């Protein structure tokens, strides 16, 4: 996750005080765990990475098993649990799980589509004292309902935002951009402000589950840059005005170098004074965290490097504790993800921003080329911007099932 607002607030403070804060290279004690506790969902969204449907799935972790895993996660110094699904509110024991997680002093977030949140559910969520609730909105009413394949889904999700907000729960909107909904981004940002929503999470499309099937609809690089220009300008204005709004992005770590570039273009005087310090902060952030600071446990207890790697399993918490699976580097993918620098190839290997971006999202590379270390086809920076002479070697995102040949990928040995 890339916290735009944090960088913008630091820059706004530096503009006022003349000092940019020193970067901290201290690493978190354990990974953030995104936990898909249930696969069932009342919706069948077009970009769902979990390929969820509205029926029960056999073999999901029991309440006792979840509690046992939580004990291991706590001992392993996991700081954050994001309870997700499917639709996590369809799990009958979700409140007991969340209550225990809070009692164990995890930071607890809930990712929901919001359609099941009525007054009573909002009361229960508020009483749990969750740290954050993210509600997905893929556009305004028509767009969202088409994406979610349910008439009325937008109204129900927006009602959930209002019900929770009225109870003092920190709420964020989650927006996954594709070519089919990019036009709604300005209106959604305005909606965020009108509703006084705390956070806007902009997710780039990742190629997993139905997101992979629909990868041919991924926003083109120019549309992605336009969207980020809009987000950066908004976050900068909010920082200068002292607004308590958070803008974050996910699933494309080229957003880090692109922020530096945006500051150089739009705020050249500040870039000249604080650009080096900002770059150091971006390196300390460290880019893509899959397999390092982000982990995933699915509904069956399988552990993955992140939520987009459900086709690659490190083991199951019923057989080995999460802490053992996460530190077992006999798995070549996990070992490569934890390697620093990662053994990336193609233009990522020669990129001058590798220390900031960390090679971006390996799932996109693997889904399009078959090679998890190939360049990320979702990188929207030009060869000139990353400092390589790539010519025509770019991997292009092809529609689902049309894989490119590995022969197109230049092999570069890891240093
Ligand atoms: S070329 Fe690779 S390492 Fe460089 S910014 Fe793009 S995705 Fe990141």
From TrEMBL:
Q: Does the keyword 4Fe-4S apply?
A: yes
What Gene3D superfamilies does the database record attribute to this sequence? Aldolase class I (3.20.20.70)
- Name what cofactor the protein needs: [4Fe-4S] cluster
Taking every annotated instance into account, which residue ranges of this chain make up the domain Radical SAM core? 27-238
The record, for InterPro entries, names: Aldolase_TIM, Elp3/MiaA/NifB-like_rSAM, Heme_synthase-like, HemeD1_Synth_NirJ, PqqE-like, Radical_SAM_PqqE_MftC-like, rSAM, rSAM_sf
SMART domains reported for this sequence: Elp3
* Protein name per Swiss-Prot or TrEMBL: Heme d1 biosynthesis radical SAM protein NirJ
UniProt gene name: nirJ
């Amino acid at each position: 996750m890339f916290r735009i607002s944090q960088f913008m607030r630091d820059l706004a403070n530096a503009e006022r005080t003349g000092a940019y804060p020193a970067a901290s290279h201290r690493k978190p004690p354990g990974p953030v765990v995104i936990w898909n506790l249930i696969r069932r969902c009342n919706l069948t969204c077009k970009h769902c990475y979990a390929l969820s449907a509205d029926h029960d799935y056999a073999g999901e972790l029991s309440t006792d098993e979840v509690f046992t895993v939580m004990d291991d996660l706590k001992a392993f110094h996991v700081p954050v649990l994001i309870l997700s699904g499917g639709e996590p509110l369809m799990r009958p024991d979700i409140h007991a799980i969340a209550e225990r997680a809070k009692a164990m002093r995890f930071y607890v977030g809930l990712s929901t589509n919001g359609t099941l949140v009525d007054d009573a559910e909002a009361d229960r969520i508020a009483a749990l004292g969750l740290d954050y609730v993210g509600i997905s909105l893929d556009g305004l009413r028509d767009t969202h309902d088409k994406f979610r394949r349910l008439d009325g889904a937008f109204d129900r999700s927006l009602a959930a935002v209002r019900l929770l907000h009225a109870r003092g729960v920190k709420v964020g909107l989650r927006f996954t951009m594709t070519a089919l909904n990019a036009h709604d981004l300005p209106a959604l940002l305005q909606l965020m402000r009108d509703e006084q929503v705390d956070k806007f999470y902009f997710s780039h499309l990742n190629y997993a589950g139905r997101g992979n099937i629909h990868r041919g609809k991924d926003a083109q690089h120019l549309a992605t840059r336009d969207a980020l220009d809009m987000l950066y300008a908004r976050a900068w204005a909010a920082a200068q005005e002292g607004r308590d709004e958070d803008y974050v992005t996910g699933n494309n770590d080229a957003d880090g170098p692109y922020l530096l570039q945006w500051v150089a273009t739009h705020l050249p005087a500040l870039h000249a004074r604080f650009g080096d310090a900002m770059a150091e902060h971006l390196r300390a952030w460290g880019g893509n965290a899959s397999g390092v600071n982000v982990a995933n446990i699915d509904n069956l207890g399988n552990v993955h490097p992140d939520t987009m790697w459900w086709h690659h399993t490190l083991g199951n918490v019923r057989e080995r504790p999460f802490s053992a699976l996460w530190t077992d580097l006999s798995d070549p993918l996990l070992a490569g993800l934890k390697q620093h620098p990662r053994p990336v190839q193609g233009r990522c290997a020669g990129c001058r921003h590798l220390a900031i971006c960390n090679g971006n999202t390996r799932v996109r590379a693997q889904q399009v080329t078959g090679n998890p270390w190939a360049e990320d086809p979702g990188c929207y920076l030009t060869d000139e911007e990353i400092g390589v002479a790539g010519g025509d070697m770019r991997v292009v995102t092809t529609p689902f099932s049309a894989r490119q040949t590995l022969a197109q990928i230049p092999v570069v040995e890891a240093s």
